[in-house]
Amino acid sequence: MSFTVRPLLVAAAREGVFGTADLGRSLGIPYPTVYRWVRGTGRPSAEALAKIHACYGLTTADLFTKDTAA
Questions:
Q1: Residue 31: its pLDDT value, please?
Q2: Band of pLDDT at residue 70, cut at 50, 70 and 90
Q3: CA nearest neighbour of 5 among 47, 49, 63
Q4: Taking Cα atoms as reference points, which of 18, 41, 21, 38 lies closest to residue 30?
Q5: Does the first or last residue of the chain, that is N or C, have fewer Cβ atoms within 10 Å of its Cβ?
């Protein structure tokens, strides 16, 4: 499974939350953590996923894509 941050960024933008720092503040998650998600070097923890769901209504199915073998 691969994490994709795009649905989160789109949902946040719809709520008027733009930028990594603002997204971190809206979720109560440190900026460096959110920055790693955006850069593709990190994935949300279970606690972070719960916060994302509470704030933006996104589920793990919205944020993770199934890897397909080539």
A1: 96
A2: low
A3: 63
A4: 21
A5: C
- 3-state secondary structure (DSSP) of residue 59: coil
Tens of pLDDT along 11-20? 999 999 999 9
DSSP 16-55: T--SHHHHHHHHT--HHHHHHHHHTS----HHHHHHHHHH
Can you give the pTM of this predicted structure? Answer: 0.90
Query: For residue 3, what are the β-bridge partners?
Result: 64
Residue in this structure with the two tokens 């930028």, named with its chain if needed? 19
Tokens 């809206």, residue? 26
